[in-house]
């Protein structure tokens, strides 16, 4: 299988959370402690529910997400896997140590991904450095093209929220997808326009706004200290200091019933909103439990929200202007 518009199942399973803890010194970059057995069972449950695409990254859990995903999918050939390179790390300390800058470093990263996944080929590799300039990214994309020519990867793309970055490589034969933030709060109209213009695949990270659009979080919910959502990064619009941002929660509550149309869960409705926005979209919601994986995968049973429901939602949402492109 190949990660493109022709074979795209319209849904992927995001594997950041199952990587476990990750740190930049004392700052948490993971989603807290995980149970690998539960993660593997959840991946199998997603497969049983119809999911066939799984997205991870070399840095998630300092390589641990790839190891767990590789173990869960061992012997499975009817699946699509994408991973991301760009962030260097120490697997023992779970610390981020730097970023990829050279072609040789990119080649080593690709080999590391294949080794951890236990595969001799991976369908898609994204550059994971959102804000890197197109000029600085050139040697990394050259390494990705070389790996594609050698049959080690099927295609490549960029995980970036910057339309100009996506456009800079959109005409390369192996460049087929852009991974970017997109959800009810962030429609990502500018980068989506570039993607549609070039016939690329829009892989939507944070489709559930780091869990807010699952509908399970209240204003007083508290997270474990090793959870990335306890930070207050500029790009993190849905949680600040471990609490749900009130404006995001208010917007969700305004459209909650509409998202649940035709028997959907809130999360399934949020995913269906993305499918209704464009035929190019493919959300990759994260998961840590069997229940989350099954619920997300079963959104496929419902498909996009109807046009009338989409219009009602847009009449009710109160989101800030998108503004100039920035990392999100």
Structure description:
- There is one protein chain.
- The model has no long low-confidence stretch (mean pLDDT 95).
- The protein starts with 12 loop residues before the first strand and ends in a 12-residue tail after the last helix.
- With 328 residues, the protein is of the alpha/beta class.
- The strands form four sheets. It has an eight-stranded parallel sheet with strand order 1-4-5-8-9-10-11-14.
- It has helices at 36-48, 64-72, 103-117, 134-149, 163-169, 189-197, 246-259, 266-277, 290-297, 307-316; strands spanning 13-14, 23-24, 27-28, 53-55, 80-85, 87-90, 95-99, 122-127, 153-159, 175-181, 201-205, 239-240, 243-244, 281-283.
- The radius of gyration is 18 Å and the shape is globular.
- The longest helix has 16 residues, at 134-149.
- 34% of the residues lie in helices and 17% in strands.
- It has ten helices and 14 strands.
- α1 (36-48) runs parallel beside α9, α5 packs parallel to α6 and α7 runs antiparallel to α10 (307-316).
């Amino acid at each position: 299988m190949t990660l493109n518009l022709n074979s795209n199942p319209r849904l992927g399973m995001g594997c950041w959370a199952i990587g476990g803890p990750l740190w930049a010194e004392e700052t948490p970059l993971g989603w807290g402690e995980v149970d690998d057995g539960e993660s593997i069972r959840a991946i199998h449950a997603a497969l049983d529910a119809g999911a066939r695409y799984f997205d991870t990254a070399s840095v998630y859990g300092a390589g641990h997400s790839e190891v767990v995903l590789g173990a869960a999918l061992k012997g499975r050939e009817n699946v699509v896997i994408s991973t991301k390179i760009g962030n260097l790390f120490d697997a023992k300390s779970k610390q981020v140590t730097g970023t990829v800058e050279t072609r040789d470093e990119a080649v080593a990263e690709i080999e590391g991904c294949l080794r951890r996944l236990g595969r001799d080929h991976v369908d898609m590799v994204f550059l994971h450095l959102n804000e890197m300039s197109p000029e600085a990214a050139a040697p990394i994309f050259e390494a990705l093209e070389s790996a594609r020519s050698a049959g080690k990867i099927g295609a490549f793309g960029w995980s970036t929220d910057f339309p100009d970055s996506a456009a800079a490589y959109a005409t390369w034969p192996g460049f087929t997808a852009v991974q970017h933030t997109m959800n009810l709060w962030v429609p990502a109209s500018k980068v989506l326009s570039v993607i549609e213009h070039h016939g690329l695949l829009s892989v939507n990270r944070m489709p559930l706004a780091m869990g807010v659009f699952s509908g399970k979080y209240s204003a007083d919910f508290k997270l474990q200290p090793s959870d990335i959502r306890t930070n207050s990064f500029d790009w993190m619009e849905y949680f600040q200091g471990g609490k749900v941002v009130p404006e995001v929660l208010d917007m969700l509550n305004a459209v909650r019933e509409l998202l649940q149309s035709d028997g959907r869960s809130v999360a399934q409705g949020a995913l269906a909103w993305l499918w209704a926005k464009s035929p190019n979209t493919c959300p990759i919601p994260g998961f840590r439990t069997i229940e989350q994986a099954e619920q997300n995968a079963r959104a496929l049973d419902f498909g996009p929200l109807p046009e009338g429901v989409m219009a009602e939602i847009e009449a009710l949402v109160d989101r800030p202007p998108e503004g100039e492109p920035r990392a999100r």
